[in-house]
Task: inverse folding
C-alpha cells in the first residue's frame, strides 16, 4: 500500500501529514545509529555472573539474541523505507 493511501479520503489528511513530518524526519536521521546499536547487541558473549545464585542455562541464548537482533533490524529498515517513501511523497508538495 502506498504512502498516499494513508492520507487519502480523510477529513484531516493535511493535518495528519504535517504531524507525521517531524517523526519521519527523526526516523530518517536516527535509523543508522539504531541499526548499529542492534548489530552491537547481537554479537558478543555475555560474561558469567558470580553472584552465588543458581542460573538456568539456555544453550540457545546466542541464537535467540541474534534472531531477536535480526528481527529488530528488519523492523528498523521497514520503518526507514516507509519514512523515505513519505518524504518522497510529502516534500515536493
Result:
Amino acid at each position: 500500500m502506498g504512502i498516499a493511501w494513508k492520507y487519502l479520503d480523510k477529513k484531516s489528511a493535511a493535518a495528519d501529514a504535517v504531524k507525521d513530518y517531524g517523526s519521519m524526519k527523526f526516523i530518517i536521521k536516527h535509523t543508522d545509529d539504531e541499526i548499529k546499536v542492534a548489530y552491537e547487541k547481537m554479537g558478543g558473549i555475555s560474561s558469567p555472573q558470580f553472584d552465588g545464585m543458581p542460573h538456568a542455562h539456555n544453550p540457545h541464548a546466542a541464537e535467540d539474541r541474534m534472531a531477536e537482533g535480526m528481527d529488530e533490524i528488519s523492523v528498523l529498515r521497514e520503518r526507514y523505507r516507509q519514512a523515505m517513501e513519505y518524504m518522497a511523497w510529502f516534500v515536493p508538495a
